[in-house]
Amino acid sequence: MSENVKGIAIPTPWRYKRYVVYAIATMVALGLPWITIDGNQFFLLSFDKMKLHLAFIQFDMQELYLMPFLLMLMFLGIFGMTVVGGRVFCGWVCPQTVFRVIYRDFIETKLLGLRKRIKNKQQEPDMTKPENKVKKVVAVAIWTLLAFIAAADFLWYFIPPADFFAYIQNPGEHMTMIGFLIGVAAFLIYDIVFLKENFCVYVCPYSRVQSVLYDEHTVMALYNTHRGGDIYDGHEKQFTKQKELQAFEPAAECTTCESCVTVCPTHIDIRQGLQLECINCLECVDACTTVMGKLGKESLVTWSSDYEIIDQKGKTNFFRPKVLAYGALLVIISIILGMMGSTKEHMLLNINKETRLYSTKLLPDGKVRVDNSYVFLLQNTQNEPMKYYFDVEAPADIQGKIEIAKPNKPFLATPGTKKKKIVTLSTTDVLVSDARHDTVIPIVIHAYALDKDGKKSEKIAVLRNSTFIFPKESELKAAK
């Protein structure tokens, strides 16, 4: 919604738009751990059960090769956002900013009236007043409750909510989880109540990285010195009153009302130019838009680029090579991640042949049985016990002549545990006639789980290449 003042349309404040983004981000963060498909979350890194859930697909810890791609997506995404919109992540998505808005603007200002106005973030409450001390205690108590909720939500991405609430009923057996819960909540209390925006200014490394990523087309909160006038000479403030400014620059429009300063959560003056502390929350844009709108003028502080506002060379170019490169990298990594995730195997199987190549045994009917033994290391990556068995696929001319001698029936494997099985493949047929050498026959092991009806599962199955060693003729004759 916007309103017209003296012919100038005052748009809906960016602050309200940020609140909508905060609400959506909060609902997503709180809701995602509770949404499951086939028992799998959208994202879960479980050190307890050694599982990774990604896009509702379960991966085993041996498949953590996906994590570097997730980290690359995250960092490239944030860096790409910075190249385009400055520290828009900090002002619009970062939990630190969201939590500070909840505590300072909602709890202290709107709910308890400890602060007088949302638009004045510089003036701290007068703590000499007894009623303010009480309000402060109440505010901290409310935030402490919310901090524990936020800490629990953070842990739900490592411990499923159902397990979390089961564990919390027996705290003595899960002290590590309780310690993390209390530790994260304590950090949030200290950070939001006492450290405040100093975290953004002095602790967060992102502010130091942003200057490397910026270019002349990067969109950020900018003060238009061509219209407003030069308030600062480098780091020194030249003018504090409009009369002083206009005596030096008659066309200067800045009213020196300081609204853009008092509203800034990181306590900077946007009129001084680009500063590391700026988080692109656009509170200063809203403040100047309101003040100048009442005078029938456009805001002196806008969300734009140096190229457009300071250098006045033309319109901001959003589709420049650097931005396109970030977009291309994000698409490429997403495709690679999707391809790797789509080839996920729903069971893990490692096959090693025993050191003895083969063994032979003369049967009562006069035939010689040739045995090859293997060590199968299988892991059930599902959430429930499963029965497993194997098939052998050989070249077409000998298909069906190699059989599984051991095990002779399906075996049970519990979730998350490795099952070691000695598997023996046998044949009584003469597969190859070679007088001089043993013959290496390529085979494929088809390992699969059985569904509830005892049939082969199409989903929980893997293929592994291996070999069957058939002895030379002299070995067969010696066995007789």
Describe the protein's architecture and organization.
The protein folds into 2 domains: 262 residues, no CATH class; 133 residues, Immunoglobulin-like (Sandwich), CATH 2.60.40.10. Helices cover 39% and strands 23% of the residues. It contains 16 helices and 20 strands. The strands form 7 sheets. Strands 12, 13, 14, 16 and 18 form a 5-stranded antiparallel β-sheet that branches. Strands 17-15-19-20 form a 4-stranded antiparallel β-sheet, with no helix packed on it. Strand 3 and strand 4 form a beta hairpin. Helix 5 crosses helix 7. The mean pLDDT is 89.
Summarize the SSE layout with pairings.
Layout: E1 3-5, E2 8-10, H1 14-31, E3 36-37, E4 40-41, E5 43-46, E6 51-54, E7 57-60, H2 67-85, H3 88-92, H4 95-111, H5 130-155, H6 161-168, H7 175-195, H8 198-203, H9 206-213, E8 220-223, H10 225-228, E9 232-233, E10 236-237, H11 242-248, H12 259-262, H13 283-294, E11 301-304, H14 306-310, H15 321-342, E12 347-353, E13 359-362, E14 368-380, E15 386-393, E16 403-406, E17 411-413, E18 418-427, E19 439-450, E20 456-470, H16 473-479
Antiparallel strand pairs: 1-2, 3-4, 5-6, 6-7, 8-11, 9-10, 12-14, 13-14, 14-18, 15-17, 15-19, 16-18, 19-20
Helix pairs in contact: 2-15, 5-7
